[in-house]
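User: Predict the complex with thymidine-5'-phosphate.
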Amino acid sequence: MSRRKKIYEGKAKILYEGPEAGTLIAHFKDDATAFNNQKRGQIEGKGVLNNRISEFLMTRIEAIGIPTHFIKRLNMREQLVRKVEIIPLEMVCRNVAAGTICKRLGLKEGEKLPRPIIEYYLKDDELGDPLVSEDHISAFGWAAPQEMDDMIAMTFRVNDFLSGMFGAIGIQLIDFKLEFGRQFEGEMMRVILADEISPDSCRFWDVQSKRKLDKDRFRQDLGDVPEAYAEIARRLGVLKDRPDLKVVAMENEP
Ligand code: TMP
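Assistant: Here is the predicted structure with thymidine-5'-phosphate placed in the model:
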């Protein structure tokens, strides 16, 4: 594994050169950070669970016609993905007020928003990923207007689709973050969904109890962090073939 060429190491994943041109291997770590790296820790089994959860969600999203970077899962912690040039924006879509929008706009956590809202954050760790406007994005050339139109349309479609899918398993999709990248094939370029979709990048609340089943348990020191990730995997049915993985994640509860 270590013989492979490391392309990039992020907070939660390592990217290695893939076996063929235009591919990468994404390795999911247990490392967790919050508040732009100010809080650090490990969530036992997170990498294994996020690899599975993201595989499941990306595959379903691909099936409704949204192109993604996902090719196939390789093993417990790794998946093969298409190499893209990441667009340096985090597209955050919110249905219910939680996290940073509460403080910014004086909203109460749990307040339903008038309609789904998309926000853009510049991917820049040194600046702490600041909120930016569409005019900033076009003026500085971070994404072209057509790319923005495509990303906004795909983000709303993903929101509708995932809200329904999670609603059916008793989970409310509060908000989530997507990243997109440019895929080059000869003369052709298209924008596809990249990165991951997991309890690291979404807020999930149990519909009945309002219990948080996502990284907010880590951010806010709520405890039972691996158990929450395992619960999402269990409800999605992604560990059916590997019941032992569920046990691994549960055993490591704090
Ligand atoms: P926020 O309320 O902290 O701005 O987060 C909004 C959503 O985006 C939430 O589901 C968590 C996700 N998110 C990430 O995936 N990565 C990040 O760096 C941040 C700040 C948020």
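The pocket of thymidine-5'-phosphate is lined by residues 92, 99-101, 129, 175-177, 201-203 (CB under 6 Å).
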